[in-house]
Write a structure and sequence with these properties.
With 171 residues, the chain is an all-alpha fold. The chain has seven helices and no strands.
Length: 171
Amino acid sequence: MVEGAVLDWGGVFLVEEKSAVIENAGFAFAAFSTAMTLMRLISDKLIAYAGPRNCVRYGCLIGALMLTGCVLLPHIWLVVILFFALGLGLANVIPIAFASTADQNEMLMSLALAAVTTLGYAGLLTGPALIGFIAKVTSLSTALLMLAAFLVIVSFSSNIFRQKVDFWRWQ
């Protein structure tokens, strides 16, 4: 949901809420995507060291802090840096969710993977619409703070992820 919100609303947020010039609107998503890409390149080692539960817990808390900072801080370039840090924090959440389907016994792995994929795409597709609805009723800043609150909820519910996972065992 956050990724879809940054994709669809990051530029609008910079222009309408932070008074950025339209030429700089793409920097929010560019910073976020660059950070996610860089973090995913090193995520196997980080997840093996810290464990999936801690990566989700602290990554979501970092994301919530960064979104809150984006709303509260006035300087556009500082906000772009916070979008970068948001990408660093959230980069591992979806890969960990996909990997977690392998070590659960509640349903067939294929069904679990389909469920995680469906929920992921549902958030990516419906999240921006929800953000738009909330923004129309209140403001885009309020909608982003709502996402920050969702990230805090995900952080506190991170106990559903395994403590440690061996990502290299499939090779």
